[in-house]
Amino acid sequence: MTISIVGIGLIGGSLALDLKKRSFADTIIGVDLNVQHQNIAKLCGIVDDTCSLEEAVSRSEIILLCTPVDTNCKLIPEILDMISGTTKVVSDMGSTKRSIAEAAEYHPARGRFVAAHPMAGTEFSGPLAAIGKLFDYKPVIICDPEMSDKDALEVTENLFKVLNMRITYMNSAVHDVHVAYVSHISHITSFSLALSVLEKEHFEENILTLAGGGFDSTVRLAKSNAETWAPIFTENAFFLLEAIDTYIDKMNLFRKYIAEKNLDGLKALMDEANKIRKILN
Fold it and tell me: How confident is the model at residue 210 (pLDDT cuts 50, 70, 90)?
């Protein structure tokens, strides 16, 4: 099998490594507008070949979109045009699903598209960030499975099973609500904390000296690529704004109790927050 990966960054590169190593694919073709990314991916053996999108689609049985979510939305109708009338399958790995579902909804070849979101990643980007086993035992959400042809869905499910992922199914709009609260707000929080610290701490040595494990783990996501995350925030703006408003309400409640030196109020908030341990453990 030949698989094309459009966007050879962390997600695309990591997919390429494991799909080839686990013999799901014989040949991996990389497509990327960044020539340096193409060269690095080929030099490091992440992909076997690089070429244009049109050539890659014509040579492949599966096309995986790993570009920013707004680019995925622009590409999906074009790729569906190319694969219409064939048994080829296209899937996207984007963190938002409603917009791409709408972009593909009325296309005659809609059945060849499987919308997916592997819940895996790191704060790093580019082909050099690609790592093996990134997806092992992580969840993957397949959205609107009833809209995909049975064989296309089965091929995509098999791909994720080879990656040892746990498959869940959701409606695309419901998916975007949940990721706004569970994933996207975490990145907003991390970016905001980094900006707050950088605004007040003008000396790098103070940050390095005083930053403990808590700060490091909370601000880690602020290293994430803006080219990837800005489109995610705008594509999921409706639900993300709701999540931000909820977060601000909780922050204001902490502010109120701290200003009042209300120990009981603070303890009650933290005890309630501690319930997340039962879920995550």
Answer: low
N-to-C CA span, the chain: 39
The CATH fold of domain 2-171: Rossmann fold (3.40.50)
Question: What counts of helices (H) and strands (E) characterise the chain?
Answer: 14, 8
The reported pLDDT for the residue numbered 203 is: 66
CA of 59: how far to CAs of 52, 88, 105, in Å?
Answer: 11, 10, 25
Cβ neighbour number for residue 217 with a 10 Å cutoff = 10
The secondary structure element, H or E, covering residue 89 is strand 89-92
Which distant-in-sequence residues (6+ apart) come within 8 Å of 136 by Cβ?
Answer: 163, 164, 165
Angle at 20 between CA 126 and CA 145, to 5 degrees: 85
Contact 198, 253 (CB under 8 A): no
φ/ψ of residue 45, rounded to 5? 75, 15
> Which has the higher per-residue pLDDT, 212 or 275?
275
- What CATH fold (topology level) applies to the domain 175-280? 6-phosphogluconate dehydrogenase C-terminal fold (1.10.3660)
Residue 206: its pLDDT value, please? 66
Q: Which amino acid is at 145?
A: P
In the predicted structure, residue 185 carries a pLDDT above the cut 90: yes
Specify whether the CB–CB gap between 69 and 99 falls below 8 A.
Answer: yes
DSSP-assigned letter for residue 243: H
How many angstroms from the chain centroid is the CA of residue 280?
20
Could you tell me the residue ranges of all domains in the chain? 2-171, 175-280
